[in-house]
Amino acid sequence: MDTLSFLRLNIRWLAAGVLLTLMSCFGQTFFISIFAGEIRAEFGLSHGDWGGIYALGTLCSAVVMVWAGVLTDRFRVRSLGPFVLVLLAFACVFMATNSALWLLPAVIFTLRFTGQGMTSHIAVVAMARWFTTTRGRALSVATLGFTVGESVLPLLFVFLLTLYDWRILWLACGVVALLAIPLLIGLLQQERTPQSMAKSSQSVGMLGRNWTREQTVRHWLFWAMVPTLLGPAAFGTALMFHQVHFSEIKGLSHMTFVAMFPVYTGVTTAAMIVSGWALDRFGTPRIIPFMHLPAIAAFVVFALASGPTGLFVGFILFGLTSGAHSTLPNAFWAEFYGAAHIGSIKALTTAVMVLGSAIGPGLTGWGIDAGIGLEAQYLCVALYFVLSSIIMWLGVRRAAPMLA
Questions:
Q1: Rounded CA gap, 238 and 232, in Å?
Q2: Which pTM does this prediction carry?
Q3: Taking Cα atoms as reference points, which of 304, 324, 317, 327 lies closest to residue 260?
Q4: pLDDT tens digits for 218-263?
Q5: What is the CA radius of gyration of the chain?
Q6: CA–CA distance from 360 to each of 4, 24, 45, 187, 369 (Å)?
């Protein structure tokens, strides 16, 4: 099926995925960190304090995701999606109205769990389950909501911060999340039947069977993939989380940093589309071991280069990895472990990534407070990606012959 026919026949379900990933932006680090300066000033926090609070709230959301993510195996998107969007709206209002330092970890928890966690999880699981032979393209299209948000929202809200109080902007986010509910319900009036896709013979994994979450966790390939899941979540989050501080040490304005987001998003989008096409044509095992190679170069550039040009090159390189990482791991779990229990398996892998996004800001924030500069830390990040890529390559190479 050509791409235009694919889009025309599946526009309702793909648009629902785009809407959910767009709404997830309100709980993503790149968006929350736009307000880092205001939050730190409001509560009198150091970089380490703010990073620790963010890590605590995010870690708690990862723990809850292990359980809550399983709900995607039990409820349709049409029912679960609106409920989660109501919770996301509440989280935005919670951020806007909270004035107590001791409640700040709870605010971060609600935003991370409903936004980064459940909203994006529902979208990705739906695409992986609803589509089989075109799974790569479906994931690429659905995650466009996230990339559009990443491109537009930072520039828009950095500008709006010059006109409005930051709390008012969070209230507006809550209203937008509520307005998305009737749109989602309208798109899914004729929701696909997940069970028909889950039982398809094309949806089995290794050894010709559908693996349960318990079986997956006991399998060695899952643990070989854990460093791969942690890396981009931890250090991509850290990059966005410390955007204000990174701009300062590079002698750049915050606006210069966020002005790179459209470039980053454009490259990410292109990489998603290309990786989705390559996934459908060549299969996950052949291409997934190489997806972090640009990230290695990106963090070397972030560490050593200076000025807008270095930032530009770094974001292009990291965008290549981010785009591939939006499609390939999500398809990997369905291809290697089957689609029947993809919701519970993805809940666990999402929890691992959320855990990574808790580790990254906390670890780098404490490093900054301890006198270890971000530039030195980013060289260590590049080394981490080298090691995780080697582990992933060895694991996939050994497991690929077991595919049906």
A1: 9
A2: 0.73
A3: 317
A4: 999 999 999 998 888 889 888 888 887 888 888 888 788 888 888 8
A5: 20
A6: 39, 19, 18, 36, 14
Q: Do residues 23 and 84 touch, judged by C-beta distance below 8 A?
A: no
Say if CB 215 and CB 147 are below 8 A apart.
no
Supply the pLDDT for residue 189.
79
> Is residue 285 within 8 Å of residue 403, measured between CB atoms?
yes
CB 154 within 8 A of CB 261: yes
64 phi and psi, to 5 degrees? -65, -35
How far apart are the C-alpha atoms of 354 and 365, rounded to whole Å? 17
Q: What angle do CA 274, 25, 36 make, to 5 degrees?
A: 120
Residue 98: count other Cβ atoms within 10 Å of its Cβ.
17
Q: Which backbone phi and psi does 46 adopt, to 5 degrees?
A: -80, 175
* Rounded Cα gap, residues 49 and 146, in angstroms: 28
Tokens 């060895």 belong to which residue? 394
Burial class (CB in 10 A: 0-12, 13-18, 19+), 363: middle
**Exposed (0-12), middle (13-18) or buried (19+): which is 294, by Cβ within 10 Å?**
buried
Render pLDDT for 111-141 as a digit per residue (tens, 0 to 9).
999 988 899 888 888 877 777 667 777 877 8
pLDDT tens, 40-91? 899 998 877 888 888 889 888 888 888 887 777 777 888 888 999 999 999 9
Residues 327 and 353: their CA atoms lie apart, in Å, by 14
Mean local confidence (pLDDT), 366-393? 91
Q: Cβ contacts of residue 280 below 8 Å, gap of 6+?
A: 133, 134, 135, 136, 137
Quick one: tokens of 369?
């407070």
Residue 395 has pLDDT above 50, yes or no: yes
List, in order, residues 6 or more apart from 316 with CB less than 8 Å away. 263, 264, 267
